[in-house]
Amino acid sequence: MFEKIKKSIHPNLVIIVLVPCAILILILVIQYQTTANEKAKLDEGFQVLTALEARDLYTMEEKIDFMKRKAVNPGDYSALFGNALIFGDSIAEGLGLFGFLNPTSLIAMMGKSAENSQEDVQNLVNLAPRYVFFELGLNDISHPDTTLEAYIASYERLIDSIRLQLPNTQIYICSIFPVTAEALKENPTLSQIETYNAALVEMATRKNIKYIDTYSLLKNNPQYHEQDGIHVIREFYPLWLDSLVNNSNLKNLL
User: Fold this and answer.
1) In which order are the strands placed within the sheet that holds 84-88?
2) For 243, what's the count of Cα atoms within 13 Å in the CB-facing half-sphere?
3) Are residues 240 and 166 in the same domain?
């Protein structure tokens, strides 16, 4: 009887049944592999996006700058400070007058103080530097109506305003430069410089900002003072700029 059943199954019928089954199995295998590959790509893409989100854009740009400028001449301050800006008074203004920095790396003017610098914040924001070095204080001390508390309050408003608009910009605070004994005789109020610098150190710590001691740099090299005992001669500026570079992330460009 089984032999009769076997003989009754036509070979073509077997082919008709098996071929669609084979095709269906092949389709299922291909779909499974495609789904698996797509899932692997999605997982990989998710990992890449997670890694990118965890990175600081400025850190990535710094690495690019490092690769571009690794061979920069240490004395080429215009290149070193290409993404930096010095914000200060007439002492800082000399960096431009003597040709050490480009105009886009400097906001400085005679008479500039922490109290009246708020008017220049928008210019700084427009330049969008990655690093800002502040050098302010002598004019605040010299002003008869300025107190230490008012000076620090003005400085903090300046910092907060910049941080609000340029959250990724790194800020550095330079100490107030010393003056000579002769200058102190002419203007006794400048004897408060060390007291003001101590307040700057406290403010920088509280605001989590790097403080750079440029006071000692000039104090130990009084020969770089101009005759007025306040301003500095041309030869001092490379020392100052080197100090800023060596005490900031700019040293990574060397």
Assistant:
1) 106-108, 84-88, 131-135, 170-174, 210-212
2) 19
3) yes
Domain shared by 25 and 119, yes or no: no
Is 117 in the same domain as 128? yes
Which range marks the domain in which residue 48 is found?
2-54
The segments of the chain whose pLDDT lies below 50 read 2-7, 14, 41-42, 45-46, 48-58, 62-71
pLDDT, position 4? 47
**pLDDT confidence of residue 24:** 62
Closest CA to 129 of 97, 162, 155, 160: 162
- Which residues are CB-contacts of 250 (< 8 A; sequence separation ≥ 6)? 80, 81, 84, 131, 244
128-150: pLDDT as tens digits? 999 999 999 999 999 988 999 99
Pair 145, 218 in one domain: yes
Query: In angstroms, rounded to a whole number, what is the distance separating the alpha carbons of residues 67 and 7?
Result: 80
Count of domains for the chain: 2
pLDDT at 34: 58
